[in-house]
Amino acid sequence: MTYIGAEVIISPLGDSAEANWSAVYDNRSGISLVQGAGFDGEAVFLSKILDFNSNSKFTALLIQAIEKIRTSIDESIITSAKTIVIISSTKGDLDVNMNDQFGKPVAAITEHFHLAHDPLVISNACISGVLAINAASNFIDANIYEHAIVVGCDVISDFVVYGFQSLFAISDKPCAPFDNSRNGITMGEGCGAVVVSGSRAIFKNQPLELLSGTTANDANHISGPSRTGEGLFRSVKKTMERNQVSAEEIDFISAHGTATVFNDEMESVAFDRLELSDIPLNSLKGYFGHTLGAAGVIETAASMQMMRNGVLLKSLGYQEAGTSKALNIISENRKGELKTILKTASGFGGGNASLIIRSI
User: What is the C-alpha to C-alpha distance for residues 7 and 248, in angstroms, rounded to an integer?
Assistant: First the structure.
């Protein structure tokens, strides 16, 4: 069995999984209107950590997340030769170094924590976080490593904001995933971390079971999702078959849900094809914004908190159905036992990834 636990979330809503859980349980969002953050000084809605002072926010967030991980596990595994650190990110320290946005942060955490191996960086658009967790599980299954610390981190930069503005993809209001009036994403920043291990004993608190997932690329377009949801359909189908999990066993789906017109529509088509339309589903982008390469880890950690607390979280921003295929969007918080959950992610270039987590 492969275990996942010791989850950490650092966002505008707090600097721990517990603090973030308290905020999202109250349906509070980290999104606010930030003056002068857009192109030509335009005010833009962002989920931005405004009170963070550091020469490199990216590196500082990585260190802070791993320091918090240290308190939740047998800390001797951090320096063990049997442990690998995996970083998921799309842009890294782009504002500090345009030519090498990962070199200095990787060197900094290697030195700070006296790691036995240089961390691996997985950067595959917005599926990076889910992909990194699956890679961690695959390393353990193959007996290459016994433990993996997965840290997903991305920070808001002019490059990212201006880029999405040039695509006319940023909403002029807080994002509203799957809603009929949705009109784009809200950028977010933050850091999430989880520990994946073949040993239950390293966790100070009860871990969950990770059922490693799969990836599928439909190569539809450099930025636009497949209209048929082909890549997402293939990934989820393979993940369920690989783990012998039926649709009836899944209690909740943490969808990608970016709040763009085409992404949310694509997901609804894919879930309909998979006969998963009736399963309770949300997008967490209304709370954290779209944190790019960190999203898969942050949202997995938040979903783990949902499992631990037995609560289905409201999909913030959703009011009226806005996709051609009906979905069971969670419109209000409600109690519910979550034994098996599905996490999905989709990204630029046609990438799609999924994984499953079970309670023990």
Answer: 27
CB 116 within 8 A of CB 83: yes
CA 168 to chain centre: 23
Q: What CA–CA distance (Å, rounded) separates 210 from 1? A: 8
Contact between residue 232 and residue 352 where contact means Cβ atoms under 8 Å apart: yes
Same domain assignment for residues 58 and 198: yes
Can you give the pLDDT at residue 221? 87
In a domain, 20, yes or no: yes
Identify whether residues 26 and 161 lie together within a single domain. Answer: yes
Q: List, in sequence order, the alpha helices (H) in the chain.
A: 17-25, 57-70, 103-113, 128-141, 158-166, 230-242, 261-273, 285-288, 295-309
The closest alpha carbon to 103, from 87, 114, 116, belongs to 87
Instruction: Tell how many helices (H) and how many strands (E) occur in the chain.
Output: 9, 17
Cβ atoms of 54 and 99 closer than 8 Å: no
Note the pLDDT tens digit of each residue in 289-312. Answer: 999 999 999 999 999 999 999 999
Q: Which two tokens stand for residue 244?
A: 């012998």
- For residue 244, the Cα-to-chain-centroid distance in whole angstroms is 24
9 beta partners = 192
3-state helix vs strand vs coil in the chain, percent to 5 = 35, 25, 40
Q: Tell me the C-alpha distance between 118 and 89, whole Å.
A: 16
Q: Are residues 164 and 112 in the same domain?
A: yes
Torsion 345-277-174-231 (CA) sign: positive
pLDDT of 239 > 90? The answer is: yes
Amino acid identity, position 7: E
Percent of the chain scoring above 90 in pLDDT: 95
Length of the chain: 360
Of the candidates 32, 62, 43, 14, which has an alpha carbon nearest to the alpha carbon of residue 289? Answer: 32
Question: In total, how many domains does the chain have?
Answer: 2
